[in-house]
Structures are given as structure tokens and as C-alpha cells.
Specification:
The complex is a heterodimer.
Chain A: H1 2-11, E1 18-27, E2 39-52, E3 56-60, H2 63-72, E4 80-91, E5 96-108
Parallel strand pairs in A: 1-3
Antiparallel strand pairs in A: 2-3, 2-5, 4-5
Chain B: H1 2-9, E1 21-27, E2 40-41, E3 49-61, H2 72-76, E4 84-90, H3 93-103, E5 109-121, E6 125-136, E7 138-139, H4 140-144
Parallel strand pairs in B: 1-4
Antiparallel strand pairs in B: 2-7, 3-4, 3-6, 5-6
């Protein structure tokens, strides 16, 4: 009996019926040196995955969506000094789960942002 | 003594072998150090974006859903049956980056974001794709010509 309950619980794992999620894998972000040491204001962006009743999981919680969300605040071509965190909301053993990837970064500041060796933009 | 010998007989390998794996022929992502913006040039006003993906497929039976959320891998360990699996495909960085670079006409890519896109139905059929999104640039050597 106990075993059957465990089996049912295990089978009803998050996303058992359908799963379509994106998870962060790696991000080769720019360094402060890429901005010539000129760091502008801080921006944040996040992207999330959600799972409901252990049956369906969906969302785009990857780096790409989080970075695009952060870049949308600034119109910067790229972000520097990037910090990536993950946050969870988990209610009643996973009846509702919400996982977010949050990017906190600085935007390159001013016209002096390109490093001296490569200061000019491509045509 | 017998158990010690049994342990010695097992391959001392770093390769993860899933329980119940019948066949696995995959190439998976491990590490990629992408180019940085100062290693090339690109249109800072509005650089183009490129993307590419590489996938592997997994067939499991009895069902074994993907452990994509916190704690679900722990729950998976309580499955009272072995889940037999057949895995195949190439979801490595090399192929995903090759496809992304091809979509950019062979130009170098910067600010590379890699995500793992998991799609699964009924815990039986699953695809896992490495998705690359990046900024398109011009190599310094090419730009100097």
C-alpha cells in the first residue's frame, strides 16, 4: 500500500503529462573590461517556469529570456558584470511551483564604453 | 571480499549511466567559453541576433518524467521500477554553435546565452535541446582588412 502511494506520487512528478520548459545552461557574459570600465546603471530581468498540480510544466526560464528582459530596460547591446540567481516558490509539496532566473547586471555607460583597442563599431 | 571484488569490476568512469539504459548514443554539452565583445567588433547601435539548436531524444518506459524542478529528481529516486531508456542525438555545444554561426553567415558570435529546452509527453518521450542565442559580430582580423 505504502509502496503504491509512493509509486503514484513518483509518477505524478512535476510535468508528468506535459513539459515544455527552458532552463539556464550557460552564459558567456561580457566583463567590465568590455565596457572600457565604464559601468552604467543596474538593470534586472527575469524569466520563469511554472508547474501546476505535478501534471504540467511550462515556461521560458532560460538565460536568453532573462537577458532580453533586462536589456529591454536599457536598450544596451549587451550587459556587463552579470549576476544570475534562481528563485523558487513551492507551495504544498509542489502543487504549485514557480522557478525564476533573475539577471542583475550593469549596462555599459556612455560613448567611452567600447574598449580602446576596438573602439569603432563595425560598418 | 566478494562485494569488494564486485566494486572493482565496475568501470571507474565519469560517464553518467542512467539506471535501465538500454542504449545511449549522445553527445552532450559540457563547457563552452564564448568570445567576449572586446575580442571582435559589432554594431553597437543594434547588433543582430543569431540562434541555433542541437537536440537529443529520450524514450523511456515505464514512464519517467523529466526532473526539471527542484526536488523532482529526489522523487524520481522513489520510482519502484527501473525505467528503461533509449537515448540518442547530439545536443553538444559544437553542433548548436555551428548552426548558430551558420545562421549568421559564419560571423563570430558574442554574448552567447545557452538554455536547455526540455519537452516531454507523458514521461515517455522527451526531447532536450541546447538552444544558443548570441550577438553577431565581425572578427578583429576580418575587420582590419
Amino acid at each position: 500500500m505504502h509502496r503504491s502511494i509512493l509509486a503514484a506520487g513518483a509518477l505524478a512528478l512535476t510535468g508528468c503529462l506535459y513539459t515544455d520548459v527552458r532552463a539556464p545552461l550557460s552564459y558567456g557574459s561580457a566583463t567590465p573590461g568590455d565596457a572600457g570600465g565604464n559601468l552604467g546603471r543596474e538593470v534586472t530581468g527575469s524569466a520563469c517556469n511554472t508547474a501546476i498540480l505535478w501534471l504540467v510544466a511550462f515556461g521560458d526560464g532560460g538565460y536568453d529570456a532573462a537577458v532580453k528582459d533586462a536589456r529591454a530596460e536599457s536598450n544596451a547591446p549587451f550587459l556587463v558584470d552579470v549576476k544570475a540567481d534562481t528563485s523558487y516558490k513551492n507551495v504544498l509539496f509542489g502543487i504549485y511551483q514557480h522557478q525564476c532566473t533573475t539577471i542583475t547586471a550593469r549596462v555599459p555607460a556612455g560613448p567611452a564604453s567600447p574598449p580602446p583597442a576596438t573602439a569603432s563599431a563595425a560598418p | 571480499m566478494l562485494s569488494a571484488l564486485t566494486a572493482c569490476a565496475l568501470p571507474q568512469s565519469q560517464i553518467p549511466v542512467l539506471d535501465g539504459t538500454i542504449y545511449q548514443g549522445t553527445r552532450d554539452p559540457m563547457q563552452y567559453r564564448s568570445a567576449l565583445p572586446h575580442e571582435g567588433r559589432f554594431d553597437r547601435a543594434g547588433p543582430r541576433e543569431a540562434s541555433g539548436e542541437a537536440c537529443r531524444s529520450i524514450l523511456t518506459f515505464p514512464p519517467s518524467p523529466p526532473a526539471v524542478f527542484k526536488g523532482s529528481d529526489v522523487a524520481l529516486a522513489y520510482l519502484p521500477w527501473p525505467s528503461f531508456a533509449i537515448l540518442g542525438g547530439n545536443d553538444g555545444y559544437a553542433l548548436a554553435m555551428k548552426r548558430a554561426r551558420e545562421s549568421a553567415g559564419g560571423a563570430p558570435l558574442f554574448d552567447v546565452r545557452a538554455d536547455l529546452h526540455t519537452t516531454a509527453w507523458l514521461g515517455i518521450w522527451r526531447t532536450e535541446c541546447v538552444e544558443i542565442h548570441a550577438l553577431v559580430g565581425t572578427a578583429l582580423a576580418a575587420a582590419a582588412r
